[in-house]
Structures are given as structure tokens and as C-alpha cells.
């Protein structure tokens, strides 16, 4: 029995060999199902990673914009204002 199973595993065309004595269609269906499930899981994982990277990129752009234009410029004005007060006093 194991000899026919090894003939199945060595068969690369996913069809049972003509000399096999047992019905291997269930093994073939399980093998194709595994391939389909693993490819769909990989697709979903990759799409989730891409979405997360897009969110991180958008978040990075938003924080960069907020930091440069909304937080650092008023801080610069405050620094200039207090330094001018310090210099004149």
C-alpha cells in the first residue's frame, strides 16, 4: 500500500498514476484544497499588510505635516518672542 502512496507523491501532474491500486482522488482533492486555502490565506495576509502599510504611511504623512506646520512654527515664534524679550531686558 505504501508503494502506491509514494507513487502518488512522486506524481507531479496531480493525477493518480495508471498503475495505482487505491483510489487517490480524495488525496488529490485535499491537496488542491490545501493549495487553494493556503494561497487565499497568503493573499489576505498580504492585503492586510498592504493596508497596514498604507495606514502607517498616511499616519506618518499626517504626523509629519502636523509636526512641521502646526507645532514647530508656533514654537519657533514663541522661541523668537522669548529670546527677543530676554535680549531687550
- Mean model confidence by pLDDT: 59
Coarse shape: rod-shaped
Tell me the helix content.
over 70%
Count of structural domains: 1
Q: DSSP helix count?
A: 2
| Low-pLDDT ranges | none
Distance between termini?
A: 99 Å
Strand content: under 5%
Q: H/E element string? A: HH
Structural class: mainly alpha
Largest sheet: none
Count of β-strands: 0
| Rounded radius of gyration (Å) | 32 Å
Organism: Tetrahymena pyriformis
Protein name: Orf89
Keywords: Membrane, Mitochondrion, Transmembrane, Transmembrane helix
Describe this structure as you would to a colleague.
The protein has two helices and no strands. The protein is mainly alpha-helical. The chain has one domain (2-88). The radius of gyration is 32 Å and the shape is rod-shaped. It starts with a helix and ends with a helix.
Describe the SSE topology:
Layout: H1 2-10, H2 25-88
